[in-house]
What we know:
Blueprint: H1 6-14, E1 20-24, H2 36-47, E2 52-56, E3 69-72, H3 77-82, E4 87-92
Parallel strand pairs: 1-2, 1-4, 2-3
Pfam families: UDPGT
Keywords: Glycosyltransferase, Transferase
InterPro entries: UDP-glycosyltransferase, UDP_glucos_trans
Amino acid sequence: MNQFSFQDLEDYINGAEHGVIYFNMGSIIKTESFPTEIMNEFFQAFSELPHRILWKWESDEMSGKPENVKISRWLPQFDILSNLYNVKFLYTLYYTFS
Length: 98
């Protein structure tokens, strides 16, 4: 899934039995350019979690992603973080001018 409607996003978050992890490396670091070894480590770690993962990803496809990972080029961070009940963890990078 590349783009969530707001209803899809709400359903995805609220339907997560163990909650959601929001993973966003910001706009400067392009995760799609990570070496295969690094991506495999993320895939392995995320696949072992009971949580659903929302990952801001720069392209339409992510080869080898685990079943519990959903990607999108853009995610409404404010709306995601407003769901304090089911968003269990946020990983994002912030820079001085971001």
